[in-house]
Amino acid sequence: MIKQPPYLKKGDKIAIVSPAKFLPKDIDFAISLFKQWGLEVVLGESVYAADHQFAGSDELRTKDLQRFLDDSSVKAIIASRGGYGVIRIIDNLDFSLFLENPKWLVGFSDITVLLSHLFGKLNTQSIHAQMPYTFDDATPASLESLRKALFGESLTYHSKNHPLNRPGTVEGLLIGGNLTLLVMVQGSLSEMDYTDKILFIEDVGEREASVDRMMRMLKRSGKLSQLRGLIVGAFNEMDEEKVPFGQSPEEIILKVVEEYSYPVCFQFPVGHIADNQAIILGTTGQLHIDGQQVTLVQPN
Questions:
Q1: CA distance 220 to 162
Q2: Cα–Cα distance, 266 to 250 (Å, whole number)
Q3: In this structure, are residues 138 and 274 in contact, taking their beta carbons and an 8 Å threshold?
Q4: pTM of whole model > 0.85?
């Protein structure tokens, strides 16, 4: 049975930690917004720590996250930012007390490792959404989607039609995250089962050849053949190839999955963009794609 952490209510305590890269700026705006939502905010020791590019040593970041995983009074843990670093600490975390009192973990990008581990290994839902580091530049709608996800309100998203979209209507459990990190956890305890799932993917700062390589790796490993649907978010800030690859990320992805019949949509509002909408991993999603728009519903 899939474990769903209790939804938040006003007065609940949440913790902010930095399990990956260090914060180069304050997150006062995010803290203020969480308080406006009626939440008590606790900052971990790692939040403003720095050890080269990391938010403190591996030991500090592990200890900090472990502290809040074990604390039953904390109802959600928010990663301050991504970057790189979660894979260095994931195997040193003990989730036994967490499983007795599940709580929401929130983040995206490098935090995909943690979210994938929660669902793949622990069968527990989590939230792919904006993080305090990105709050300053986030759209109000994306921040509101995080609030709704945390407080158990239904989520409905509409996005514009893309010429490469493949129409259809499906329902299934939502999984996904950053493509690079999803590929990186394959073959480990943290990988998810893709069978009968609606997969969402996004990435930033990659080359077209890298996208092609990663998508073909997922295909060769059998991850893409049994999906119910594919949601492709932002693939932005792509590094320019010295010799043009000849296909956009969207064209690459569609080519890789062309033999499958499930619906596919592109440029959905998820990823390293201002309008990064919250998606709950492990919840049921209803995806509808037609010639006019894309609709994704995550019922409460």
A1: 27
A2: 7
A3: yes
A4: yes
